[in-house]
Structure formats: C-alpha cells, structure tokens
C-alpha cells in the first residue's frame, strides 16, 4: 500500500493529553514521511540556497521531532561537507522538542550544526524577533505541515519570507487544494473548520495569497493516498480513529449530528475525495510543496 505522509497532528497532541490513542500509534507506523519526501521531492532538501556560503542560516518552524530537519542536514552535509549551519528550531510542543533533542543526541557527527531551541509558536517567535530587533537573514526556512496551526497563515508566510536573504527560500508543505481534504473542508467548512486548534488551509489558499501579492514561487505536487475503507464499517475501531483524524473531531462517529456524519461519509466516498481500487476506498491525500522566493 502507498505510504501515508504525516497528516495533521492534533491527534498526537491529544495523545499527550491522556486520551487513549494506542490505535493512533498503529496508524503512524504507516507514515514514512522522510523516505516519501526524499523520493518525491528532491527539491525539498535544500533547494539551491546559499550557494558558495561557508555557513547557512536555517530555520524550521513547527519542526516536530526533527526527523525531516536532520535528513535535510545530512543531505546538505553530503553535498557540502565544509558548510556549517546555524539552525533555529521554532516548535511550541515541549514533547516534540524533547524528541528532537533526543534524536540529535543519538546522531553522530552533527558538530557542523549549531542548534538554537525556541519553544514558541510561529507568532510568539515573530514577536520575539521584532522585540529584540533581530536582523539576521535566513538562507532556508521550512514550514512542513505547520501552517494549519497559525491564526493567519498569509501573514505568517509574509513575516517569515521577510527574514530571507537575497537568495534564500521558504519551503511550505500543506495538503493540496485538489486533495480529498480540500473537498472535505470546502464542503463542510462551517461544521469542521471552526476549531481553535487548526485552520482548514491548503496550498490553494497560500498560492492565492502569494499571487495577490505578486510573490514568485515554484510548486510541486506530491501524490499520496490513504486507505480509508474501514471508515465505512460501523463500530470499526481503526475506522473511527481515521474518521477522527479526517474530521479532526474527537469521537466523531458518536458525537457528530447524524446528518453531518452521513454527509461526511457520503462525500468521502465520492471521486472528489477517493477512488475505489479492488473494493478498497483510497483517499486522495495529495500534498503540495511551495518554494517561495524572498520579498523583492
Ligand atoms: N514539520 C514536522 C512536524 C509537522 S506536525 C513534520 O512534517 O514532520 C506540526 C508541528 O507544528 C507540530 O510539531 C506542532 O507542535 C507544531 N505547531 C503547532 N502549532 C504551531 C504554531 N502555532 N507555530 C509553530 N509550530 C506549531
């Protein structure tokens, strides 16, 4: 079966809040995020930034446990063994930061990277940056599956873009507008997208924002799919968890009004969201990468 890149992770946060999400762990074992990205998006790993520089300023916003960040650095190091890195990590979750630090401590030969840990949200970091009148320019900033969690994704993109050096790049990855997520969110925006935790933002929204500001960027689709067949079996534990994941509603199956539940299940089965393969329902989980240029 195709890999499932990490999708949204408020469910992970809920795990840490004491809910029993053993099953969710079961789901996460299917997420081969790093190999997936490596195979499908070589450009994600340091698009030609900072050519010729001896030291690169890098920033990960919402880096999670840092698996992707460290893989990016190891690719960079292979190509440019003499380059050193100043890496700012902006990550509000203490648990994720801890996991990142553990990963760093386990990997040998990371001496060429200087880590600065910022236990902050993207917005808190922006405030910190402004209050301290910091002026350092960045060669590479990435926000991978993160912009769902900020109040104003457009303003966040613009602020971080303003930190880029002349040849810097800002990498954004989100689900694409044409994915099943896009259709689900457009159809049930009022019912599913009014939470405090996350916005139903796709790369379509970010591209429209960038276009309105005549900002240049490149984009790449990352086709990806997810088997959601169990969602349609009443009482199936994995199916119910998947439904929670898709709707970002805890215990959706038992808490959603019946007409909403029916509407969501019907929509998930339509060609706008899924295709049927050998009797399985395969959800379109296509992601999109935007590589954004600096402000002119
Ligand atoms: N980039 C990582 C993790 C993605 S999950 C990867 O792709 O593997 C989203 C991450 O964003 C989580 O680690 C979460 O703690 C973090 N996050 C949530 N709200 C945030 C915010 N307001 N600002 C910055 N990061 C945030």
TrEMBL record:
Transmembrane segments: none annotated. Keywords: Methyltransferase, S-adenosyl-L-methionine, Transferase. It holds the Pfam family Methyltransf_23. InterPro entries: HHMT-like, SAM-dependent_MTases_sf. One of its GO terms (biological process) is methylation. GO terms for molecular function: N-methyltransferase activity. Monomer. This is Histamine N-methyltransferase.
